[in-house]
Design goal:
three-stranded parallel β-sheet; alpha/beta; 6 helices; single chain; about 30% helix; globular
């Protein structure tokens, strides 16, 4: 499962939205992973000091980029060898109903069992926050995520245009920080494939589905 909002589709891809039954099957598979992983013991079992079991997690950080080279095409419209979805985030460009729908979808996962952590990335257009009340709306969105029992959400407020310009003229953007996946980094110091993955993330212009 390369993304968690399973019913989303991309405008220039075929209609790959899934049925409620398929969503339940995907949820059941992931639930099985969460429940069974912690029962597995690693090589430190019995040697201490504590733990020595595996911890289920969706915090693959930025490994979704190289891992995509090993995975064929997926049902969300992703082509073979493209980067996988950003951990719990929908596959880039597929979240057509806005960030509020994303957090509602992700909240259906059993985060209480993800003892190894989780990551949800959201990117917003800076122009959205030129209107002061949208800063309050962002705070409300984050609070809603935790009220729905989400585990983690991280925000980038940067335009894809700025990021592309930083690729072309890195010397002009030495202090451009971005949230990658569980960590922040100077954009111009990142591997170009990781840069492209961040650029390709949906740049939300609002909090709900575009009218």
């Amino acid at each position: 499962m390369s993304g968690s909002t399973l019913g989303e589709v991309h405008e220039d891809r075929p209609d790959l939205s899934v049925s409620a039954m398929e969503s339940r099957v995907a949820w059941a598979i992931f639930s099985h992973y969460l429940n069974e992983t912690g029962k597995l013991k690693n090589t430190r079992w019995g040697k201490g000091p504590i733990g020595c079991t595996f911890h289920p997690s969706t915090a693959s950080v930025s490994y979704n980029v190289p891992a995509g080279d090993l995975v064929g095409a997926t049902a969300d419209g992703r082509k073979a060898r493209e980067p996988l979805a950003d951990v719990e985030s929908p596959y880039r460009g597929t979240e057509r109903n806005g960030p509020t729908a994303v957090i509602k979808s992700v909240s259906k996962l059993e985060h209480i069992l993800e003892s190894g952590g989780s990551i949800l990335n959201l990117k917003f257009s800076p122009s959205l926050f030129e209107e002061g009340r949208n800063r309050e709306n962002l705070v409300a969105l984050i609070r809603a995520s935790f009220a729905l029992k989400g585990m983690e959400v991280q925000i980038d407020i940067v335009s894809s245009k700025t990021l592309r310009q930083a690729q072309k003229e890195p010397e002009k953007y030495p202090d451009l920080l971005v949230r990658v996946a569980g960590y922040s980094a100077y954009f111009v110091a990142l591997d170009p494939e990781v840069q492209n993955n961040i650029i390709a993330r949906t740049e939300h212009q609002g909090f709900f589905a575009p009218s």
